[in-house]
Backbone:
């Protein structure tokens, strides 16, 4: 991987003093991931270019990673600029990065015309522009195409930045923003990364319009780290537009309204012992635990990982014994019968059925309505008709949704299921109801015919 | 002589010093004896700590329960003088449906005192012994009342010393009878149909002077087994009784009681029973019979045993069926289950009790044959079958031949009795799967071996299976992973035909087929005459493209396979294929992983070379670095050419082809024993039928040990891979189920991948000598054992499918294959 730095500030060869690398020699440095070279493809008084070339040793990279991930044998790390190159840059140009120069201190403090080229870098033109333009760079980025046989562009850019910038600032921009564009780190991100970010971001990051995205990506999406960094930058607003695909203003309240609607339905059928089938990370469980009416709460999910998340979220290990005894978390799959699930007052399938392939729904019906047979079942699912109100939404609301039903489709399914297994069913709308399309979420309440 | 059932809970009863422990030691295995002293020691470090008794008995009962559940005789060595102590034991015995037996050791108090004084750890006084003795006297009379089915009292030291134990079998244990059997469903007085059926089965009927059938004998010594409900509703219950009684007496038949016999006997005993469900008909028919016959019939019914375990434990016959835990056991509830089945306590719209679907939960290894519930046609559900086809309601009388499992039915001459519930309502065979069939740590015995599925692998597989895979009823097989050949030492090669051929030679194979390895996506295809249940799935059991493309694809495969259905006499076929091109299914992966890396490399390396050329032009020496980067550039070009060869334009199904290479199974059969010549010939037939849809598989048959033939194979492989092919798979010619000379399965094939192909696996630069040296240390052991295990599990799943095994028995194996895929194995192999 490669980056080149060019200046036309006369005498251009002074760049060698600033970088503390003589233009007449080829410099090489051993770095943990291979060998870094600094050399000068051109070095005249008018124009001088320093190139940083990192010859990555794939074997050294592998030794640090999971041997069962096939991606580590075939990957772009030797070619694309990333945190590997940023780390090499920090090592090789340490004093320049600090803005220090023994030989040319005034020049180091001066804004000089610079041209930076990174021939291969992950990212989109749009994101590269959002990141570099606010820092005074003119951004000329070209997407690199895949081969003609396959067609289309790759996820890589050939980036050219032009501007009149202090060299130290330019290097700090690269040091922070190369890994941000790449959006991956080759090493474990520890809390001291916050210091590194703030140090390199001094003087520009606090005012950067994309500081939230920069902090999150630089700190490997560790929410706590990013929040801490942003706090120290005195940033209050930590809502990023990038993270949530659905309109933010709608999403949070809908989840709450849905939860409340489910709780209301459970109250209507006087349920005390309840199953949350497909509980995921425990969004509903937390609400159930808070309500003393529920004497036994069972969260079931097919993903053991989701159950771990739920256990942490409920702080199960820290609950007093009596509280903890109310809650059980079981791995179970709704397409198999499970004797443990028999005999409960109610079962909740909140935003679950749309994650099941339609041909497998009869198995779910048989195991929930036929075998577990709770007194009542609460089912919620998106109302497909409402999707027209989500701006920019094409297809379904979630990539794992196997279907989204109109109200008529959902009611037909629910009525047939109720009929087959001896339940009565009624329907409720959840969320703001629209005249023609109905509410965003639909709820069916099944009650056993005693 | 003391008679003890083979499976019983034996309570020794006696005062301290009566010699219980000595008696237990001399008659039973140490592990059969649970001593209260020992359990006191376990929980309190002191065998005589009476304060620990409650806890000690808790543990003792628990251990006794585990032993009885496993069918093991258990002896409790404790004083057992208190009614509450004995009640605890009777309860444990009943919970496991075994008979509680008491053996009382009654010795004079003086002798016991003498022995007690000789033991330093016994510190109680004489009055304690006196009290014990009083308790013993009180106990003697009440043991039978407390539930002990046998009470043996041994009086005095001599009698105790000379006693011998004799084990007796339970009445229901007829494992030594191996038939063959003809099991007959509910007759309900349909005498003429019974005679026709027996005739069809080959029995010769013997008649008495009055011309009444009194026995039927099969010339080949077969045994008839009646599942009960001989009587009621039909026209001639006495005739049926007479014949069956005669057959049982003559030893040509066995009979278990049905609820109708039970009720008839109660009536004949003068009990007040409701005269419903056809009992009045029987009673009026019996009025025409002599009293002696009626008395004989009553005795016959009362002598019937609730169920039989036959044929080495492989067959259980009970009127209403029997769950596994009750088989070969004896208790009131076992009898009740056998007679009436299990009901949910609810009644249906006709007022009849709703029966609990015990067969759905049945996981036992013994086949259970029963009657009781009229059905239109008998169907095997989880290794159980109901033979009541409602003859008396105008249906038919059915027999099952065992062990051939052939059904023989005779239609009813007419409807003799109107059914309360219409017979036409067919019972839906419900073979839904239970989560307990697949989760947790499981040990699986699969004919070709045994394996343990780790709980965490099962958990991972459960997620894939339930969230992404097809219906388990469809998903009857998953392709096993395949090991590469041994690592080659030939310069420049990691895999080479010489190693692959040597591997098979070492496995004792003398003839192989080298098959072109298609680089696409593995696809398992099930097609049938009717199209019902047809599917195409990936190696993890997922549907391929989605219904809108899968359906038309399957339609075309079905059309091409139609001649094969007739030829192979099957309604369906399971094909192992590779779907091409790779880009059709893996387009996203190719774009993101492979082509992206190629584009990045092809852009970055020339840029670096340009910089180096400029530096060199300035007179600086960068030759060594430039050579390295140039090598990289050529490596990335080779890498790019490799994946590019597997990318072809497709539009919907246009451009998509299937390369079939094995026929796995058809109706009631597997093709595991067919050789690969057979498999490929059939694959060629498909190619000929639809050359646009199917791609042929190039192959070369090689006699191992012939150097010229082996050299040809190498040349063939070199040409194949030079043209961009992935490589080849070398398989034992004998077929999928090929075994070595010790009868063990051998690897169904080893793959030998091309030199260039491996760049997309090991990285563009893997061919450098120093890299190859490192890679040659790769360890194939885990991959090979995984490949062989998955292969065996898959073959066993197909075998079970062919045998008509219950769905859960097939599914547990398919699930185990998926779970095995969660094991950490080098993904490059």
Residues:
């Amino acid at each position: 991987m490669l980056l080149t730095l060019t200046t036309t500030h006369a005498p251009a060869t002074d760049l060698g003093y600033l970088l503390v690398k003589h233009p007449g020699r080829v410099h090489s440095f051993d770095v943990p991931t291979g060998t870094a070279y600094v050399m000068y493809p051109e070095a005249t008084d008018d124009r001088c270019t320093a190139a940083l070339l990192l010859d990555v040793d794939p074997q050294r990279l592998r030794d640090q990673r999971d041997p069962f991930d096939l991606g580590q044998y075939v990957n772009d790390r030797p070619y694309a600029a990333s945190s590997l190159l940023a780390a090499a840059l920090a090592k090789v140009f340490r004093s320049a990065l600090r803005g220090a120069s023994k030989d040319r201190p005034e020049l180091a403090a001066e804004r000089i015309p610079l041209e930076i080229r990174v021939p291969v870098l992950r990212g989109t033109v749009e994101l590269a522009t959002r990141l570099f333009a606010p820092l005074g760079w003119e951004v000329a980025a070209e997407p690199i195409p895949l081969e003609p046989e396959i067609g289309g562009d790759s996820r890589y850019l050939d980036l050219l930045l032009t501007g009149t910038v202090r060299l130290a600032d330019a290097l700090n921009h690269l040091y922070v923003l190369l890994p941000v564009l790449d959006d991956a780190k080759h090493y474990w991100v520890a809390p001291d990364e916050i210091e590194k970010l703030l140090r390199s971001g001094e003087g520009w990051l606090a005012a950067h319009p994309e500081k939230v995205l920069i902090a999150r990506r630089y700190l490997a999406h560790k929410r706590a780290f990013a929040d801490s960094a942003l706090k120290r930058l005195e940033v209050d607003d930590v809502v990023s537009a990038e993270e949530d695909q659905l309109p933010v203003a709608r999403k949070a309240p809908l989840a709450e309204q849905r939860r409340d609607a489910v709780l209301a339905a459970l109250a209507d059928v006087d349920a005390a012992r309840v199953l949350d089938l497909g509980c995921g990370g425990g969004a509903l469980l937390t609400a159930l635990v808070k309500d003393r009416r529920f004497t036994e709460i069972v969260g079931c999910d097919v993903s053991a990982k989701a159950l771990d998340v739920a256990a942490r979220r409920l702080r199960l290990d820290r609950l007093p014994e009596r509280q903890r005894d109310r809650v059980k978390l079981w791995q179970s799959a709704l397409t198999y019968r499970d004797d443990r699930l028999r005999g409960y007052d109610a079962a909740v399938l909140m935003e679950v059925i749309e994650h099941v392939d339609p041909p497998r729904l009869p198995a779910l019906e048989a195991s929930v309505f036929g075998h577990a047979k709770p007194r009542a079942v609460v089912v919620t699912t998106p109302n497909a008709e409402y999707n027209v109100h989500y701006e920019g939404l094409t297809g379904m609301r979630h990539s794992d949704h196997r279907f989204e039903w109109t109200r008529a489709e959902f009611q037909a399914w629910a009525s047939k299921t109720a009929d087959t297994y001896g339940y009565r069913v009624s329907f409720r709308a959840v969320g703001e109801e629209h005249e023609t399309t109905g509410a965003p979420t639909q709820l069916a309440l099944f009650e056993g015919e005693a | 002589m003391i008679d003890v059932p083979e499976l019983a809970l034996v309570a020794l009863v006696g005062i301290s010093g009566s010699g219980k422990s000595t008696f237990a030691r001399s008659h039973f295995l140490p592990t059969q004896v649970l001593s209260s002293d020992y359990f006191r020691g376990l929980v309190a470090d002191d065998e005589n700590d009476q304060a620990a008794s409650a806890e000690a008995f808790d543990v003792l009962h628990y251990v006794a329960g585990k032993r009885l559940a496993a069918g093991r005789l258990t002896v409790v060595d404790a004083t057992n003088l208190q009614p509450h102590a004995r009640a605890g034991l009777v309860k444990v015995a009943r919970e496991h449906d075994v008979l509680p037996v008491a053996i009382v050791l009654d010795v004079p108090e003086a002798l016991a005192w003498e022995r007690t004084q000789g033991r330093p750890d016994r510190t109680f006084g004489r009055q304690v012994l006196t009290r014990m003795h009083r308790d013993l006297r009180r106990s003697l009379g009440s043991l039978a009342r407390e539930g002990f089915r046998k009470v043996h009292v041994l009086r005095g030291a001599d009698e105790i010393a000379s006693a011998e134990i004799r084990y007796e079998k339970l009445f229901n244990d007829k494992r030594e009878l191996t038939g063959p059997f003809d099991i007959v469903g509910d007759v309900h007085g349909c005498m003429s149909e019974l005679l026709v059926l027996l005739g069809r089965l080959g029995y010769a009927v013997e008649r008495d002077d009055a011309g009444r059938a009194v026995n039927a004998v099969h010339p080949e010594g077969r045994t008839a087994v009646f599942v009960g409900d001989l009587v009621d509703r039909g026209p001639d219950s006495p005739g049926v009784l007479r014949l069956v009684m005669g057959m049982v007496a003559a030893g040509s038949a066995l009979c278990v009681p049905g609820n109708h016999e039970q009720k008839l006997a109660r009536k004949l005993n003068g009990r007040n029973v409701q005269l419903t469900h056809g009992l009045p008909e029987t009673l009026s028919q019996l009025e025409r019979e002599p009293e002696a016959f009626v008395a004989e019939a009553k005795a016959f019914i009362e002598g019937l045993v609730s169920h039989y375990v036959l044929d080495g434990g492989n067959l259980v016959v009970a009127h209403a069926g029997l769950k596994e835990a009750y088989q070969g056991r004896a208790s009131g509830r076992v009898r009740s289950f056998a007679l009436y089945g299990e009901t949910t306590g609810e009644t249906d719209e006709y007022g009849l009790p709703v029966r609990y679907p015990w067969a759905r939960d049945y996981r036992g290894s013994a086949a259970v044959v029963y009657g009781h519930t009229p059905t239109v046609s008998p169907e095997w559900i989880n290794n159980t079958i109901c033979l009541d086809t409602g003859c008396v309601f105008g249906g038919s009388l059915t027999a099952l031949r065992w062990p051939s499992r052939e059904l023989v039915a005779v239609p009813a001459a007419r409807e003799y009795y109107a059914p309360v519930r219409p017979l036409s309502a067919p019972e839906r065979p419900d073979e839904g799967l239970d989560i307990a069939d697949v989760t947790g740590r499981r040990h699986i015995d699969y004919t070709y071996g045994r394996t343990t599925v780790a709980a965490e692998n099962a958990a991972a597989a459960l997620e894939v299976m339930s969230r992404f895979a097809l219906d388990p009823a469809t998903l009857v097989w998953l392709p096993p992973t395949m090991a590469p050949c041994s690592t080659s030492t030939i310069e420049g090669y990691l895999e080479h035909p010489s190693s692959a051929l040597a591997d098979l030679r070492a496995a004792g194979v003398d003839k192989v087929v080298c098959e072109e390895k298609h680089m696409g996506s593995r696809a398992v295809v099930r097609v049938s005459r009717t199209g019902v249940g047809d599917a195409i799935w990936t190696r993890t059991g997922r549907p391929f493209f989605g219904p809108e493309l899968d359906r038309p694809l399957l339609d075309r495969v079905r059309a091409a396979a139609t001649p094969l259905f007739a030829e192979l006499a099957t309604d369906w076929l399971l094909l192992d294929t590779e779907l091409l091109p790779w880009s059709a299914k893996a387009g996203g992966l190719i774009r993101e992983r492979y082509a992206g890396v190629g584009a990045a490399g092809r852009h970055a390396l020339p840029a670096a070379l340009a910089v180096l050329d400029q530096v060199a032009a300035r007179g600086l020496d960068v030759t060594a670095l430039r050579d390295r980067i140039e090598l990289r550039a050529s490596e990335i070009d080779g890498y790019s050419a490799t994946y590019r060869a597997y990318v072809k334009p497709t539009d919907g199904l246009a451009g998509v082809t299937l390369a079939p290479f094995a026929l796995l199974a058809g109706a009631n059969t597997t093709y595991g024993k067919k050789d690969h010549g057979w498999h490929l010939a059939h694959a060629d037939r498909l190619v000929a039928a639809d050359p646009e849809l199917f791609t042929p598989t190039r192959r070369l048959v090689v006699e191992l040990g012939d150097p010229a033939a082996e050299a040809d194979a190498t040349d063939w492989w070199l040409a194949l891979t030079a043209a961009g092919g992935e490589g080849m798979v070398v398989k034992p010619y004998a077929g999928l189920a090929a075994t070595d000379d010790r009868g063990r399965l051998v690897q169904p094939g080893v793959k030998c991948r091309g030199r260039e192909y491996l760049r997309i696996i090991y990285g563009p630069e893997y061919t450098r000598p120093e890299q190859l040296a490192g890679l040659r240390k790769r360890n194939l052991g885990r991959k090979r054992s995984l490949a062989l295990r998955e292969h065996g599990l898959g073959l066993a799943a197909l075998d079970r499918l062919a045998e008509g095994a219950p769905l859960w028995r097939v599914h547990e194996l398919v699930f185990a294959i998926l779970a095995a895929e969660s094991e950490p194995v080098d993904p490059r192999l």
Notes: Residues 2-187 of chain A form a domain with the c-terminal autoproteolytic domain of nucleoporin nup98 fold (CATH 3.30.1610.20). DSSP finds 16 helices and 14 strands in chain A. The longest strand of chain A covers residues 153-166.
